Amino acid sequence: LSSPPPPAQFRPSVSFDTFSNPSASDFSLTLNRKHRDYVYTKRSRTFLCGTDTNEYSDTALEWLIDELVDDGDEVVCLRVVEKDSKEAAKWAGGQGEKGYRREAQRFLEEIEKKNTEDRAISLVLEFSIGKVHDTIQQMIRIYEPAILVVGTRGRSLTGYQGLLSSGSVSKYCLQYSPVPVIVVRPGSSREKKKRKRLQDPSRSGYRDILDKS
């Protein structure tokens, strides 16, 4: 007899959904996937990460999962699309809420793949159609994250000047977020450092450092 397939790494669930509510001014869908070994403890932390379809957004999320997150932590990925934008229309594809749901599921699957070190974490996708700045503040109030992580396309300028491009989400977060903000720059050396770290047998995670302190 053939061996049964291995258990799924993450367990999916839908915890909140207003897409079917026609009276709602904005629409949101909350998807959650918990690692099979995830356990919430008093030391668990929550991180909020702004995400979109740009490469620098992927860089920020990968950096968060690789460098900050440890077993027992929760990563909340916020994806906001302006209601009347071309992107919203493209995702809906003439199918309304079905198009949004399909895109949200696809997006969460891509997020799950970034947990390359198989950490026992909880992944949450907040997929919203509405105002970007308002939704960021709302998610901060709901989740009370330890840190807000965002990406930036800026790489030619140095210091704050390279981060605070006019109208950017990173600029808004640095100016108005009530919680600490980390802005992650894109960098070609990140993958090289990640490979070197994975090959180091003596490397320690965040939790190991806490245990030794």
Automatic annotation (TrEMBL):
Span of domain UspA: 45-185
Alphabetical list of SUPFAM superfamilies matching this protein: Adenine nucleotide alpha hydrolases-like (SSF52402)
Chain segments carrying region Disordered: 187-213
Gene3D superfamilies the record matches: HUPs (3.40.50.620)
InterPro entries in UniProt: Rossmann-like_a/b/a_fold, UspA
PANTHER family membership: UNIVERSAL STRESS PROTEIN A FAMILY PROTEIN C25B2.10
Protein's recorded name: UspA domain-containing protein
Source organism (scientific name): Dothistroma septosporum (strain NZE10 / CBS 128990)
